[in-house]
Amino acid sequence: MTRAGYSVSYLLFLALMTAVGMSWEYYSPGFAANSSTGAVFCRELLSSGSDDSAMVLMFMIMILPFIFRLARFRYPPKAVETSVFAVCVLLVIGALYLASLDCAQVFYTAFVVPDFMLLAALVSLAGAVWSIYRLRT
């Protein structure tokens, strides 16, 4: 694949993660946890877990690397662009980790329930890492 192809795939992955961050609260049933009776959604809990959905909003931060890549579409990524992307990825992973400390089981929600929006965001996260790696080499 050419540099333009990797740039397009990288931009699409970032755009999908941003879209999931903006719309997950409205179109997703929310995080779930596995129990003996099946899936228990965190939104149903009154004492805790109802704010876990706010952690997915962190995917909206992927608009920053999107803007960097859009501005430098024809050129290979510089260290600044890669660093901004790395910080954004670490923030997203940290937010998902924080959600998992309370009620949410991220991979259970994405792959077992399944929540296709969260699944798309997680797959896009891996795809974006792969795409920027290929752009750098």
Structural account:
With 137 residues, this protein is mostly helical. It has one domain. Helix content is 63%, strand content 6%. It has a two-stranded antiparallel ribbon with strand order 1-2. The longest helix has 25 residues, at 3-27.
The structure class reads mainly alpha
From the N-terminal CA to the C-terminal CA, the straight-line distance is 12 Å
Tell me the count of domains.
1
Mean pLDDT: 88
Main beta-sheet annotation: 2 strands, antiparallel
Topology pattern, helix = H, strand = E = HEEHHHH
* Rg, nearest Å: 16 Å
Strand order in the largest sheet: 1-2
Strand content: 5-15%
Oligomer: single chain
Uncertain regions: pLDDT < 50 for 5+ in a row?
Answer: none
Q: Rough shape?
A: elongated
Helix content: 55-70%
Features of the shown structure:
2 strands, about 140 residues, mainly alpha, elongated, about 65% helix, two-stranded antiparallel ribbon
What is the compact description of this entry?
The protein has a two-stranded antiparallel sheet.
List the helices and strands and how they pair.
Elements: H1 3-27, E1 32-35, E2 38-41, H2 63-71, H3 79-102, H4 106-112, H5 116-136
